[in-house]
Specification:
heterodimer; A: 116 residues; mainly beta; six-stranded mixed sheet; four-stranded antiparallel sheet; 12 strands; 50% strand; globular; B: 115 residues
Chain lengths: 116, 115
């Protein structure tokens, strides 16, 4: 079974609109971290936002927020006021457990296209 | 700012060649990772290292080896390149500040084409 599921292969949004990118995860470990990365066409992976499993509040970073619903095992990324530069592929990732140095498990990504 | 660099953005090699992909980070991070990215498959972990001269296999280590002689440098080696190793290779590094703060930072990637 997939540990990270991103069900939207592609999303289209107009500039200045908000968009939600879905991510569900599967783990039995009570300690885990959830991450979102952005990958523009140039290829580099840019870290956007992080949510820990014990965090009480949803994480926010500028125009990015993470809608964390623990019981539903979902960690959706919300981008407010989309910009043309937000067009990219977005990956949700998880790290399980409390051991340092463990690798991330990535979803297959969602391509976001922002139009004017 | 964290800086992770990779030796080449684009690389074209022939089947059977030995290929070295280099990754350097300047933030004194203990952990370094090599992933490959393929369309429809997302990122998959090849190898990682949590200290100098230490390495751990990831999900798809076959056909690859790694070397970490210095803390800042992590090399991925394709001993005999094959066409199914044509892919995007991404290097990442992190520091173990406690699992919930351990963010991985990525390099720009190397697009490798094996002919």
């Amino acid at each position: 079974a997939q540990k990270i599921t991103q069900t939207q292969p592609g999303m289209f949004v107009q500039e200045k609109e908000a968009v939600t990118l879905d991510c569900t995860y599967d783990t039995s470990d009570p300690s885990y971290g959830l991450f979102w990365y952005k990958q523009p066409s140039s290829g580099e992976m840019i870290f956007l936002i992080y949510q820990g499993s014990y965090d009480q509040q949803n994480a926010t970073e500028g125009r990015y927020s993470l809608n964390f619903q623990k019981a539903r095992k979902s960690a959706n990324l919300v981008i407010s006021a989309s910009q043309l530069g937000d067009s990219a592929m977005y990956f949700c990732a998880m790290r399980e457990g409390e051991e340092a140095g463990t690798a991330l498990i990535f979803g297959k990504g969602t391509t976001l296209s922002v139009s004017s | 700012d964290v800086k992770v660099t990779q030796s080449s953005r684009y690389l074209v090699k022939r089947t059977g060649e030995k290929v070295f992909l280099e990754c350097v980070q300047d933030m004194d991070h203990e952990n370094m990772f090599w992933y490959r990215q393929d369309p429809g498959l997302g990122l998959r972990l090849i190898y990682f290292s949590y200290d100098v001269k230490m390495k751990e296999k990831g999900d798809i280590p076959e056909g690859y080896s790694v070397s970490r002689e210095k803390k800042e440098r992590f090399s991925l080696i394709l001993e005999s390149a094959s066409t199914n190793q044509t892919s995007m290779y991404l290097c990442a590094s992190s520091t173990p500040r406690g699992w919930y703060q351990e963010t991985q930072y990525f390099g720009p990637g190397t697009r490798l084409l094996v002919l």
